[in-house]
Amino acid sequence: LTNEEILxxxxxxxxxxxxxxxxxxxxxxLTEAKKLDVQAVFGEKYGDTVRVVDMNFSKELCGGCHxxxxxxxKRFAIxxxxxxxxxxxxxxxxxxxxxxxxxxxxxxxxxxxISDLRLKIKTLLxxxxxxxxxxxxxxxxxxxxxxxxxxxxxxxxxxxxLQESVKNLDKKIAKAxxxxxxxxxxxxxxxxxxxxxxxxxxxxxxDLESEVLKDLADRLADKIKLGVVFLANIIAEKVxxxxxxxxxxxxxxxxxxxxxxxxxxNGGGRSDFAQAGGKDxxxxxxxxxxxxxxxxxxx
Length: 299
Known about the structure:
8 helices, 3-stranded antiparallel β-sheet, 6-stranded mixed β-sheet, Diaminopimelate Epimerase, Chain A, domain 1
């Protein structure tokens, strides 16, 4: 069933409720009831005498309690629809004053997901603001509750929109961070040293995400051409070392390993690119001085 078909079923039931048909209940032989073209529950076994509920537009075999007129039901709202086989569906619904309570129960999971996504978006925006980065974000409006399956449809759509918003916001923030680092490239390049005709750039960075840090190393390496870039990214008490190397005499893996060991960590990698982590950021200056001396010695 499509959403439109489900809403059409709900609308039809509410239309019949408003028409306030009288409900007639009769007991009769099963053979006589079959002649009235009544609806029976698929797979249900019936005795010789059955209870027929006649609401003018619908005649059914049913043993349940019923109102005297359809108008007493007041309103009907579908909560969920489950396929039970080819062309067979199980519809869960609520009526009258129970709609509000049952709809809230049905929407609880979706509402919690919406709340979590909105909190994630808020956190992302606060983090970027603290970094001095501005990104455009258009808030996804949440529609009010209606006593209808339309509310379930709306909430599902709103969850999808918020999930997409988080993805797009992540992309925008990553792009903005890269652009911020591109603008700051000249600041890093001022720290470039020339050792025996080779370019050597050693620098600290702060609170950069892993992909942004690697991207910065790549861009700096492209700028200095034949040389080595060695970055120490400080995140709270810890440090991440990244090295991009284009000099045959040097090995990026050995350089980051040596710096990591000094700061209480370990790591390594290829000769042209490597990454390692340290646990003691207080020893970064010592580590960077040691790396500079190591490079001078090797070159």
